[in-house]
Amino acid sequence: MVFALLQGTNISSSMRLFSPKLVNEIVNKLPTFLDQSSKEALLNVAVSIAVIAFIAYQAMTLALMSSKKDDRGMGPGIEGSRYKDKASGDDSCFADLHDYLFKEKEYFYEQMKLRRSVRSFTSKSVPMKIVQNIIKIAGCSPSVGNTQPWKFCVVLNEKRKAEIRSLIEEDARNNYVRRMGEGTEWVMGVSQLQETWKRPYLTDAPVLLVVCHEIFKTVEDKEVRLFHYNQISTAIAIGMMLSSIQDCANDIFQERRTAQDDQPNVMTDV
Name one GO cellular component term (predicted). Predict the structure, then answer.
């Protein structure tokens, strides 16, 4: 009987259940044998059903939103869990971070934590595409006024690498003997430590990346010396370049480790 009454109202959407006009139409179409108390009871039942449906809809919406947050890896707590802020480099420092944010920061920190100053290289060639990507990443570094005062030079020629090594070793030797040396005893002592200023890795490495920056710039037909911020901007670019090199090295180490794990173990008699 109620279904027949609803068909006559021409309902187009569920939201019309809350329309006062719709409620009046339903009440007017009730059979005449119902008294006033029966009409009020039926109206209360209809309103109760509508309220229950609204509460159920809100509960489903909240459950759906909660499931989406869980999929993103966020913790159930509002403040998140307390973790060690490894990004600061201090293991005794704590910070309130969401789980998924901490995982990303921790991953980047663990990658950079593996960085080492390497002074021994193999002669194996490096794909030029990797070198180009390293320079592209370094070129994304910020600079004052977007001047980008740096220039990255790729050196592959053995003769050029030998010349660069000679210049750097001479400057390093002068740094010990002339700039830092005080008295004959210091100079004689340094002469016994020739390994200190030798740089054999400059010729052993298959590729050299030489970073230059602008010192002078022509402005209105005059040569003007640029300020120190060019050196700072170039230093930041070098830092990003070293980070990209470290990321490439981690990928290579992971590939070699995976290849070694895939190899079968062979037992031989000695």
Answer: plasma membrane
Q: Which DSSP category does 180 fall into?
A: S
Asked which of 33-37, 123-127, 157-161 is least confident by mean pLDDT, the reply is: 33-37
| Identity of the amino acid at 23 | V
pLDDT at 190: 55
What backbone torsions phi and psi does residue 97 show, to the nearest 5 degrees? -135, 150
Q: Which domain range does residue 178 map to? A: 123-262
> Domain containing 156 — which CATH number?
3.40.109.10
Tens digits of residue pLDDT in 212-245: 988 766 666 666 666 688 889 999 999 999 988 8
8 Å CB contact between 7 and 26 = no
Instruction: Name the domain count of the chain.
Output: 3
Q: Which pTM was predicted?
A: 0.51
Query: What value does the CA radius of gyration of the chain take, rounded to a whole number of Å?
Result: 37
